[in-house]
Amino acid sequence: MLAPPMALLLELTHRCPLACPYCSNPLQLAGMKQEMDTAGWREVIRQAAEMGVLQIHFSGGEPTLRKDLPELIAYTRELGLYSNLITSGVAADEAALDHLLACGLDHVQLSIQDATAEGADHISGYRNSLQKKSRFAEWLKAREVPSTLNAVIHRQNIHNLPAMIDLAMAWGVGRLEVAHTQYYGWGLRNRAALMPTREQLEQATAIVLAARDRHHGELVIDYVTPDYYARRPKPCMAGWARRFMNITPTGEVLPCHAAETIPGLVFDNVRQRSLADIWNQGQAFLKFRGTEWMPEPCQSCPKKELDWGGCRCQALALSGRADTLDPVCERSPDHERIQALAEQEAAQGDDAFVYRRPEKVVEDV
Ligand code: FES
Q1: How far apart are the C-alpha atoms of 130 and 77, rounded to whole Å?
Q2: Binding-site entries for [4Fe-4S] cluster
Q3: Domains in the chain: how many in total?
Q4: Do residues 314 and 236 lie in contact, with contact meaning Cβ atoms separated by under 8 Å?
Q5: Which domain holds residue 322?
Q6: Which of 25, 313, 325 is the best mutation target for the ligand 1 pocket, counting ligand atoms within 8 Å of the beta carbon and taking the most?
Q7: Helices 161-171/198-214 angle, 10° precision
Q8: What average pLDDT does range 155-171 have in this prediction?
Q9: Which residue has the higher pLDDT, 356 or 301?
Q10: Which of 208, 298, 314, 365 is spaced 20 to 30 Å from 321 by Cα?
Q11: The CATH number of the domain where 158 resides is what?
Q12: Residue 239: helix, strand or coil by DSSP?
C-alpha cells in the first residue's frame, strides 16, 4: 500500500504584493476569480486528514490575502493537522496575526529578500518591505511563535549573508533557511541576473558553516546549495510523488510546484477527483514515481533511491527532456555545459530583473 504524502502545500492564491524575480509561481498566474472557494479548500483539508497527511503548508502568492485563511487554519487544527504559514509578512497586521494564532496556527515561515532596506526593496519590487517584515518578526518574537526565516540568496544579495544571519538572531527565530535560488519559472527567466560566481558560493558556504558553530544551540541553519555548481543532483521534493502534493489556486494537484512546465503530464483537479485517487493513480504522479522510469546510467546507479534521479523540471529546462538525467549530475552529458553556463552568466550576466508584476495576473483563462 502506498504511504500517504507527508505534507500538502496549498497555494491559496497567486496574488502577492511582492514581485520577486525568482518567484516559484508559474509564469501564467491564476486570477482571483479563478481561485478555489472556502468550501473547496476545506474539502481538500478534510480529505488530507482522511488520507493521513500530517502537515498543511499555507502558501501563495501571499496567503494572508485570503480572507478565509483563519477559517482554514482553524479547520486544520480541528482535524489535528500541523499548520505552517509561508508569508512575506508585509500584508497582515498585528490583529490579523493574533487571529491566526488564536485559530491554532502552529508555525510561521517568514521570507526576507535582503538584510538592507534598499536591497530588499530592489529585489522584492516593493517599498519598505524590510521595515514591514521587521515589524512582523517582532510580533512573532513577542508571542514566541515557532518561526523559520527564509532567505533566498543570489549574486545580488549574497554579500549580505552575514547580516541576514544577524537578523535571524535578532528576531529570535529558531531556524534560518539559506537557500540559493532555484531556477524554474521566474527564476529561470532571471537566471543571468541571479547566478552567483563560484567564489561567492564558496564564501557563502564558509559563512554558513562558521555561523552554525557560532550559534550552535540557538539557531539551526539549513543550507540549500545551488544546483548548477553541484556534482550530484538533489532529491527534489524528496523524490517525485513520494512525500508531497502541491495544490494550485484553481485546485490542480501537482507533484511539484514547477510540474506544469512539463509537457504531456495530465493534472487532475481536486474539484473533480479525490485527493487519494490522484495521489495513488493520477497520471502526473505515476509518471516519475519510483525508479522504473529512469534511463541508464540512473538505473544502475547505487544512489538512485537517494537522489531519485534529481529534478525532472530541471532536466527539462536544461536538457530539453523531463525523462533524462538531471544535468546537475556529473554523469549527464550536459553537466560540463551547465557548469560553464553558470560561470559565464555569473561573470557576464546583466543585473536587470524581469519582475513578477501583479498586473501579469490572468483574470479569465
Ligand atoms: Fe519539479 Fe524538481 S521542481 S521535480
Answers
A1: 31
A2: 16, 20, 23
A3: 1
A4: yes
A5: 1-359
A6: 313
A7: 30
A8: 98
A9: 301
A10: 365
A11: 3.20.20.70
A12: coil
